[in-house]
């Protein structure tokens, strides 16, 4: 037998094993975690104590986390999670931060030294730039997580509230009336 034949046979056997495993040991998603994740703001900021929105959603679904740990989701997010889970809403837990207006990172390009620390900190790749060249933020991709601000050695990044426009304005949610 030639070495090429043996290698090809081993790859074929490995492929069969992987195919069998994929068919018989498939891990199904958690539908409740999917619904919870859909209600979270997807900032991936970690303020909740988890490395992103999906891990937080999974923890809530397992009963390992409270629904009031997401400052970017705010009181509205807590209310939506409570409604989904059929529980009473809780006040936002200030231990994880406070609710703020939605914002976007802005880099003062005249001050930027191109260190790339903000690029490395951004969980959604919303910052463009190269080493020793100025950086800029793709505003439509920025989630406002603020994770790019602390590592900046020259303080050239600031958070600016997103201005309401006709495209993103909406009526406030109606308040429930007790009575």
Automatic annotation (TrEMBL):
[4Fe-4S] cluster 1 binds at residues 45, 48, 53, 70. Pfam families: Fer4_21 (PF14697), FeS (PF04060). Its EC number is 7.-.-.-. [4Fe-4S] cluster 2 binds at residues 112, 115, 118, 152. [4Fe-4S] cluster 3 binds at residues 122, 142, 145, 148. HAMAP family: RsxB_RnfB. This is Ion-translocating oxidoreductase complex subunit B. The gene is rsxB.
């Amino acid at each position: 037998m030639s070495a090429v034949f043996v290698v090809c046979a081993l790859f074929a056997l490995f492929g069969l094993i992987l195919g069998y495993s994929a068919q018989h040991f498939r891990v199904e998603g958690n539908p409740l975690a999917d619904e919870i994740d859909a209600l979270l703001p997807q900032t991936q900021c970690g303020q909740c104590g988890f490395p992103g929105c999906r891990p937080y959603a999974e923890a809530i679904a397992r009963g390992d986390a409270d629904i009031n740990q997401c400052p970017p989701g705010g009181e509205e997010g807590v209310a939506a999670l409570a409604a989904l889970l059929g529980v009473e809403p809780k006040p936002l837990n200030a231990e994880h931060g406070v609710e703020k207006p939605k914002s976007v990172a802005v880099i003062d390009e005249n001050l930027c030294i191109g260190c790339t620390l903000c690029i490395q900190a951004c969980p959604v790749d919303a910052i463009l730039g190269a080493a020793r060249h100025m950086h800029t933020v793709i505003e439509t991709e920025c989630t406002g997580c603020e994770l790019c601000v602390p590592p900046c050695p020259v303080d050239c990044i600031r958070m600016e509230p997103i201005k309401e426009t006709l495209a993103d304005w909406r009526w406030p949610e109606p308040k429930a009336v007790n009575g």
